[in-house]
Design goal:
Length: 99
């Protein structure tokens, strides 16, 4: 029996400006997350997770890192899911501005 080949995940078409905004905002969240690890005011882990998710939208390497972290630390999956939802809201707002 021949099974169909697994197709690579299709990335949605985004404009260059939107891709740049996603990458910059991802790195901003990463920096805030690193600061949050040392400052008691910021939630460092959550900001790191949001930044990683945003970067994973455009970077296959970031996607692989997130998948490895999920496999190695299953409890981190809840934080990553929360971050994914928050990042999706942020992306929805950004997408609405660029339409």
């Amino acid at each position: 029996m021949n099974l169909p080949a697994v197709q690579p995940e299709q990335k949605p078409k985004r404009s260059r400006l939107l891709r740049l905004v996603i990458l910059v905002s991802g790195w901003i969240f990463i920096v805030l997350g690193v600061l949050g690890l040392f400052l008691p005011i910021l939630q460092g882990i959550l900001f790191l997770a949001i930044g990683a998710y945003l970067l994973s939208l455009e970077s296959p390497m970031a996607r692989r890192v997130i998948n490895r972290l999920r496999q190695r630390y299953p409890k981190l999956g809840d934080t990553l899911d929360t971050a994914r939802l928050r990042a999706a809201r942020i992306l929805h707002r950004i997408n609405a501005k660029f339409r």
